[in-house]
Amino acid sequence: MSPLRKQGSGAKKLDPRFRGNDKFGGNDKFGGNDKMLFPQLELHHIAKAGQVYSALRRSRPRTRDDLKNYVKVFLGLDIPDRQVCPEHNSPLDYLWHSFSADFSEKKGANADAVVWANRSGGKTELAAIATLLDCIFKPNCQVRILGGSGEQAARMYDYLTGFLNTGFDRFTAGPARKAKCRFVNNSAVEVLTQSATSVRGQHIHKLRCDEVELFDDDVFAAAKFTTHSTAGLVAAMELISTMHRPYGLMHQIISQAPRLGTPIFKWCIWETIEKCVDRSCSQCRLWSDCHGKARQAVGYLKIDDCETQMRRASRAGWEAEMLCKRPSLENAVFDQFDPDIHVRQIDYDPNLPLYRALDFGFVNPFVCLWIQVDDAGVVRVIDEYVRSRATIDVHAEEMKSRTPGGESRVAATFCDPAGAGTSDITGTSIIRELRSLGVVTRYRRSGILEGVELIRRAIRSGDGMSSLVISPSCQRLIEAMRCYHYPDRSAGASELPLKDGLYDHPIDALRYFFINYKHARKTTTRRY
Questions:
Q1: Any alpha helices (H) in 146-244, and if so which ranges?
Q2: Which of 179, 217, 378, 454 lies in disulfide reach of 514, CB 3.0 to 4.6 Å?
Q3: Which residues of 211-300 form beta strands (DSSP E)?
Q4: Residues forming beta bridges with residue 468, ordered by sequence position
């Protein structure tokens, strides 16, 4: 059953004599016995009413309220239109944005959107409605559906073909095929497979990506180049998903959206749950999260069902899947890291020793962290430098220029032991090169887990205290602290965090600091 359709709200079929020139489906908002409804109405008046109804079906909604009423009348779906949480949107906000972008007098460069919503939040069905409206009211519009899996893409297409059977089949140019449908106005929709080959070569107006959290990176990279605007039609790439993991693709998309100017449409259980009436809050399992929000709701999710799901789920899963608060930290290495606790403005203190920690890289990033430790033992990360595809001399100059007080103020520079290895190409090592450039380094060999445990202890020790604080300017390190994770269970059990080439490098630099600082008295400076 459609998640957007309330139980018992389906309309009855229209009496065949009401059809006029339109093909009415089972969701049309009339029904019952014509003798009861229209006892004095003659058949030609009934036919005239059918013609009016058919004309209304062809009339493009001009306002947000028109759109809501159109979908309610012709699809039998009552889309929630109330923003309950202050920082959220309603599902109708997304649908109106998607539909109206091509009719606005102030058309933007694109009509991209990100949809972050709860499970059973109607995301896939709303995207199917948007696809139907695009194909009906926007001639020549080319729409493609790309799901995180073939099953997910097929679900959106199944919604679309189901809508066609409710009186919209007259708009199609022949029957809908298994994964493709054409319309008489030359619009078309097609399902793409989750492969870079399927995506590459597409030149379309609208791309709807459902459950992007499950996308392969290569497929997502290829999909970014598929949409193009033409006269009267604005290109749009819509990214739709829940957010399962703090290190997943959806997390990256949400983080980048404000910088790219892409609107985020976010809603949760409180925008989609049914209105709470005549229930005792003190007896309700949802009260700890609800606090009366359900009394303002206008959605369709049954309260009893939501209570059951909450009881079944873990707290982390409930918050990620239904409240859209944050992704599950189940696989996160530093699940105790909290920006509200561990991130605050800190500056260089000339009265404290200054340390640097390095992780080497070329294609993968080269990382330098500037760190101080105060008298209470709190590790203060005051700055970071992260750069790819630059030579050691470039990195050395940047480090020296950004070091407060110059090299004389640096108590020690700790680095990756791998930097001591001699290159077959240059005949020297990174550590030797840095020394020749005026940067003296130290290192100590250790296991990954040893350093990870030291970072964990600084984040939160056994007595609940924290001894780590990071400056807000260290954005790459902060992101890595939140997203550094273990491999998925499907990849096999592992005690070691995933080396993903993105989040591991800032963490490695921080590890080298903790390992070397802990064993500072035993650390030696090597000469080459």
A1: 150-163, 196-199, 217-223
A2: 454
A3: 236-241, 264-267
A4: 379
pTM of this prediction? 0.70
In the chain, what are the domain boundaries? Answer: 1-59, 77-269, 270-321, 339-518
Between helix 150-163 and helix 123-137 the angle, nearest 10°, is: 50
Q: Which CATH architecture has domain 77-269?
A: 3-Layer(aba) Sandwich (3.40)
Structure-block tokens of residue 446:
């250790």
H/E stretch holding 227 reads: none
Q: Which residue has the tokens 């490098």?
A: 505
pLDDT (tens digit per residue) in 231-243:
889 999 999 999 8
* Domain 77-269 identical in fold to domain 339-518: no
pLDDT (tens digit per residue) in 429-473 = 999 999 999 999 999 999 999 999 999 999 999 888 999 999 999
List, in order, residues 6 or more apart from 117 with CB less than 8 Å away: 91, 123, 240, 242, 265, 266, 267, 268, 272, 324
What is the Cα–Cα distance from 137 to 152, expressed in whole angstroms?
A: 25
Comparing C-alpha atoms, which of 32, 49, 53 is closest to residue 41? 49
